[in-house]
């Protein structure tokens, strides 16, 4: 009985701490929404990347542990946190605010329209910006980082579309506007680990735009060249 009472008291104290934090977050989210959402996003994405690296190093996500590589790259974690702080948090706040003003009708059609806009209009360019941002901070030129981002876009979108439409059905039907960035950050806790892993996975070298645009020589042109070269 004493053990049960102690457990109840401990749970009560933990509940009070959580309640105080929730009230503090609510006050800050009302008075300083962009700052609050930016800081929250930065912290959660940074922690997500840190844990992702820990999983990689234990061999659960790669064979890094077999090679004795257990180093945590704090620069990588800082890059991910800066994305949340400087881009994902503030832009997310403005996007969800603008989306609610754009789509004024409710019901199932309103939710479906918001999900469609988020996934078809908003997500592709944001994904390209993310990979370009990551590549640039790793020392690539903006042009090279953009090229890499475009190569990674389609595989990332295919994975994205297996997760986020369901998440955003809840986002736009159940979550109040003021808490949508927090909700998305919670869902992002796992997804951002995947994004960070994608950002640090090399892709096969693609041909340059000149190589792609250069037309192949026609058979007739090749034959004329051979005939010309054979004339003494």
UniProtKB/TrEMBL annotation:
Organism superkingdom: Eukaryota
Keywords for this protein: Membrane, Transmembrane, Transmembrane helix
Subcellular location: Membrane
Family affiliation: Belongs to the peroxisomal membrane protein PXMP2/4 family.
Segments of this protein annotated with the region Disordered: 209-232
Record membrane topology: Multi-pass membrane protein
Species of origin: Prymnesium polylepis
Protein name: Peroxisomal membrane protein MPV17
Transmembrane segments: none
Lineage, broadest ranks: Eukaryota, Haptista, Haptophyta, Prymnesiophyceae, Prymnesiales
The keyword Membrane is assigned to this record: yes
Main localization, broad class: membrane
Pfam families: Mpv17_PMP22
GO cellular component: cytoplasm; membrane
